Amino acid sequence: MTNKRLVILGGGESGVGTALLGKAKGYDVFVSDKGKIKDKYKDVLLNNEIEFEDEQHTESKILNADIVMKSPGIPNKVALVRQIREAGIKVVSEIEFASHYTEATLVAITGSNGKTTTATLTHHLLKQELDVGLAGNIGDSFAKQILNENHENYVLEVSSFQLDDIVDFKPNIAVITNITPDHLGRYEHKFENYIASKFRVVENQTEEDYFIYDVDDEVIVEYMKTHKIQSKKLPFSLTKVVEEGAYLENNKIVITIGNNKITMSTDNLALEGKHNVKNAMAASTVAHLLKIRKQTIRESLENFQGVEHRLENVLKINKVQYINDSKATNVNATYFALESMNAPTVWIVGGVDKGNEYKELFPFVNEKVKAIICLGVDNAKIMESFSNMVDVIVETQYMSEAVKIAYKLANAGDNVLLSPACASFDLFENYEDRGRQFKDAVRNL
Fold first, then answer.
1. Residue 231 in marked binding region
2. Over 80: is that where the pLDDT of 226 sits?
3. pTM for the model
4. Which CATH number fits the domain 5-92, given the four candidates 3.20.20.80, 3.30.2290.10, 3.40.50.2000, 3.40.50.720?
5. What is the pLDDT of residues 144-159, one digit of tens each?
6. Residue 408 assigned to a binding site
7. 114 annotated as a binding-site residue
């Protein structure tokens, strides 16, 4: 047993999970959160006799750490984090800390968009035949699952923030769904810093490991031209034929690994849209690598229910379909949403703009959007970008009002789509809160 001191910055899901695992492994654990720790997490810490503080950081109790686990929400440039590093104390993320305590096969999935759907879908394909947990950015923390459930396999949805603080973390299978400008405020507004951060998912891999990626994504392809990747590469594509990996041929997904080839029709995929064909390719390639039977993969792709707040069909009222895509917190995610609309659409958009460039949406807005409802504190940029493309563009600060306006504007056969292309922190707690308020408002019509 160790007597080392583990200090955890952030008392949320990953912080409390790490505290529990750390205590079980014999660390002297202290949790410190600058904000308020939620009651449900306080209760866990109290019940497990783990020392903590909130609404402050006591430096003397932090700078005596042997190792610090920093919650992904805390940027590296914060003064306290700098002090910790200057004191020569190792700073790690939860996935780094937890991965040292499991022998499981790890599948790590990252990307600007599609990572939650791909991770959830991959877990859905694997759980039919394997003992597998789903963690990372989703559900119960990875650390807590290792402590309580100890699965033989894990699918991890990992963000660039989590990857920023890895040291030895090495997934057996790494997936990058795509890379588009996002979160640039955390990366000195340099896209190349963000790209490098995503690619950390493969940095510790060896030739025994696998890397699955979108070869149609120019950003990924360009990066790979100048950076050597050790692992075995399995690209997927909608437009090119690949020797190993996955591609599309006559509406069929063809997956080749070694001498083994499987084909699957896309006709009955539960998820609609081209981007979901890619997500299905990535997930099926993982399943194929882990020896899931072809029949199981097929059936699972057909009965997968999708992810809450991601192109989620809420209700049909007077022949108008209401769709919750609150998880679309950047322009690229909304691009996929608008691309998959097959009826005139009333689009609810807006929130905290992360330096958005709306140009790529123009063709879809011209073709499919009949009215725009801006739901944000500052909608100037959206108004400016789209006001001459649609007949109706209105502003509101309330979800209930946005939905009532949409109800008035939509005719039978139309869609009402919440796909904000922005972060949610101006009017909502997070994108889940925004999505739930939308669904409640629709149900109350």
1. no
2. yes
3. 0.83
4. 3.40.50.720
5. 999 999 899 999 999 9
6. no
7. yes
